[in-house]
Design brief:
This protein has helices at about 1-5, 10-25, 30-40, 50-55, 60-70, 80-85, 110-135, 170-180, 200-210, 220-230, 245-255; strands at about 140, 145-150, 160-165, 190-195, 210-215, 235-240. With about 260 residues, it is of the alpha/beta class.
Length: about 260
């Protein structure tokens, strides 16, 4: 029996190993199975208990049983209290108390979400009010029939020029150059700079939304150039020089833009 073969230190070590083993197991493992495997890791072979002994808690010593119970290897909810009290009266196990489930609390919106919704509501009301005023102030021409001429709201359109292959400070330099360009005083042209190591998906997405796609041939691969050329929504250009040549290419495009 375990009270003869195992010391208290050995019992503690075997029980702790069994608990860890069962907790880490991906399949269900009984306390007896866990204890049998644990003893083979901790103890020398001559101290191993037979499977029929180690798998039956009724055959365990009092020290082993109490240690396993305290360590959670034997869940108290799975043990009949009366049986434990008869076997080990010194344990003085209190009766199992079943806690009533707490009523679910109603879910409440986070303060940040409430503030966002309130702000969104205010802006939506403002937009509707402005639109109503625009309709009320619309020009009315009276003839054989009443016709309401609604004011046209024209939003400035942005045209994107994508350049693939600029390096270092060339990106910021060319962006500022385009901002100061005489043909871009209204800011309708925007420069999108992509490094040569950008993914093909990024390049495709940018080029499909562009009016001009340019590749810096000195700094990109043939496969990248092919992706840009195929994905360009409207116009594709190759730039074989540096930023000066790139500036001339963009300027010529801006001058001719809209002529067609």
């Amino acid at each position: 029996m375990t009270r003869k073969l195992w010391t208290k230190t050995q019992i503690d070590a075997v029980v702790q190993a069994a608990v860890r083993m069962r907790n880490n197991s991906q399949v269900h493992m009984s306390s007896g199975d866990a204890l049998e495997k644990a003893q083979k890791q901790i103890l020398p072979e001559h101290q191993w208990l037979a499977p029929t002994s180690v798998k039956q808690p009724n055959n365990w010593s009092q020290t082993l049983f109490v240690t396993a119970l305290k360590a959670g290897l034997i869940p108290k909810t799975h043990i009949r209290v009366s049986r434990l009290e008869r076997a080990y009266p010194e344990l003085k196990i209190p009766p199992l108390q079943v806690k009533e489930p707490e009523p679910e609390k109603p879910q409440t919106l986070d303060a940040g979400i409430r503030a966002f919704l309130a702000d969104f509501e205010d802006r939506l009301v403002d937009k509707i009010a402005k639109r109503v005023l625009e309709l009320l102030n619309a020009d009315v021409s009276v003839g054989t029939e009443c016709k309401i001429v609604l004011p046209q709201i024209v939003e400035p359109k942005e045209f994107r020029i994508v350049v693939v292959g600029l390096i270092g400070t060339q990106n910021s330099t060319m962006r500022q150059w385009l901002v100061n360009h005489d043909g871009n005083k209204d800011g309708r042209f925007k420069l999108i700079c992509l490094p040569s190591d950008s993914s093909h998906n990024q390049i495709r997405a940018a080029c499909k939304a562009s009016v001009l796609a340019i590749v810096m041939t000195k700094f990109i691969s043939h496969s990248t150039e092919a992706v840009v050329k195929k994905s360009a929504a409207k116009e594709f250009q190759r730039c074989n020089g540096g930023t000066s040549d790139l500036g001339r290419t963009i300027s010529m495009f801006i001058q001719s833009f809209g002529e067609d």
